[in-house]
Structures are given as structure tokens and as C-alpha cells.
Amino acid sequence: MSISLAKTTRSFTILMQHGTVHAVLLTPAGDQERSRLSAEWYLKDCRDMIEVRAIDGYDASVQAMPLAERRAVIKTYLDYDENNTFRDASRIYRSFRDYVRSLTPEERAANFNPDLANNPPIGPLIHFAFVETMRDLGEPIPA
Length: 143
Hints:
Elements: E1 10-17, E2 20-26, H1 31-45, E3 48-54, H2 57-80, H3 86-102, H4 105-111, H5 123-136
Antiparallel strand pairs: 1-2, 1-3
Helix pairs in contact: 2-3, 2-5, 3-5
């Protein structure tokens, strides 16, 4: 049995700023190299670094976009609720996402409310849980 390197996933680090991909790099193997990359890019240019496993750089950047969106929504929530950590807010988001995934496609479409996106602190989390779930399942997202 032969192994095709074209289909082998590798670890990529995506450097982003304000939702735009600035660079896609193979993730350094050692912790010291990762720390140096983090310091070099984050401290210097204030870019978000996202690590994903993908077959190529394009796939890595596609995977990084929703992760960056989710991170931004969670950070927005934390702007309003200073008592929670990022981990706590992520857990809250996951509970909303799990609930939305438990709905049928018809229930998701009926309960989708775009106005939630503009109703902080919890509204954006719920809205993005709907958007991400519907996108993952290939369902149309109402305007």
C-alpha cells in the first residue's frame, strides 16, 4: 500500500489580523521555534495565530477563517462579561452550538434570528452558533 504525500495532513500556523489571512506557514516543530514565531508576529504586528491540520496551505486558511470568527465572537462576549475567562466563554459557546445542532433543520431555520448578532452580550454567541452549525451542515442561512 502506498502513501500519497498530497493527502497527508500537516500542521499549519495561520497569521491573521482583523479576519484577513496574512500568512500561512508550516508550524515549527519545536516549542522554542513556536514561541519565537509567536513573539515575532504577535508582539510585533498584533496578529492572531491559529494552528490547524490540513493537506495544504489553502485548506489551512479555509479552516482558519471560522476559527477566527468564533474567537472574535467569544472575545466580544468577554468585553461585556469580565468575570469569565476565554475558556469559560468557549464552554458557553459550545453549549449553544450543541443545542443548535440538536435542532432539526426546520427548527434551526424557524429559530434563526439575524438580530441576535447585534444584541450583546449573549446574542452574538447564539447567532454565531446558528451560523456555524448551519454552514457546517450545508444548510441555507436566512438573510
